[in-house]
Amino acid sequence: MYKKAVLSLLAFCLASSSLVVNSQEKVRLGSPLSQEDLEGFDLIAAPDGSGFPAGSGTAQDGKAVYDINCAVCHGINGEGTTNNTVIVGGDIQSEGPPLRTVGSYWPYASTVFDFIRRAMPATAPKSLTDKQVYQVTAYVLFMNGIIQEEMELNADNLPTIKMPNADGFIDRSHIQ
Ligand code: HEC
After folding, report:
1. What is the C-alpha separation between 59 and 32, in angstroms, rounded?
2. What is the pLDDT along the chain (176 residues), one digit of tens a residue?
3. How far is ligand 1, taken at its centre, from the CA of residue 1, in Å?
4. What is the C-alpha separation between 5 and 34, in angstroms, rounded?
């Protein structure tokens, strides 16, 4: 009786392990990433100035990039088309619910560049060239009154731009 139970358990294990093998054969896990694929994810442009690509651009040139690629969702002046697509204006100190935008909330201009480069336009992320990202980042900063229209934004000066809400955060990164 006992022996029979062990044998049928063994038979069950063998059957189920072959099931696993079969199902693994059916799972399509895709193909390995190439070095080039990986580079498409290696996009961190940090507030310390690291990770920026070569290139530069002004808000003057960024207007055309913005009008074609961004205005449909963010409005022609950054006023947005929904609550979470407003990227200009806002008051973080407001007594009502504060409106968080690039101008009112974001602490680093480098993060604006980084975010646009990896995530925008929302329907076609990473479709802009690095030059276009510099240009359109300059335009978004210009619309928020943070830089001049003719300022040539580049890897050196982007991290030095002081954002209106730069001091609105408490650094608790030292607490694990
Ligand atoms: C198809 C619509 C769409 C297009 C086109 C688009 N965006 Fe966005 N964008 C969004 C949405 C939706 C969000 C909010 C995403 C979220 O909160 O996670 C957003 C967020 C952002 C933010 C962050 C706003 C904030 O304060 O949190 C920035 C900056 C931005 N977009 C810039 C751009 C730029 C520059 C372009 C053009 C190159 C662009 N977007 C094109 C839909 C779009």
Report:
1. 40
2. 555 555 555 455 445 555 555 555 678 888 888 888 888 788 899 999 999 999 999 999 999 999 999 999 999 999 999 989 999 999 888 899 899 999 999 999 999 999 999 999 999 999 999 999 999 999 999 999 999 999 999 999 999 999 999 999 998 989 87
3. 69
4. 50
Query: Is residue 77 within 8 Å of 88, Cβ to Cβ?
Result: yes
For tokens 């209106």, name the residue: 164
The alpha carbon of 9 and the centre of ligand 1 are apart by a number of angstroms equal to 57
Q: Whose CA is nearest to atom 27 of ligand 1?
A: 101
How many residues are listed for the chain in this entry?
176
**Rounded to the nearest whole angstrom, what is the distance from the C-alpha of residue 115 to the centroid of ligand 1?**
9
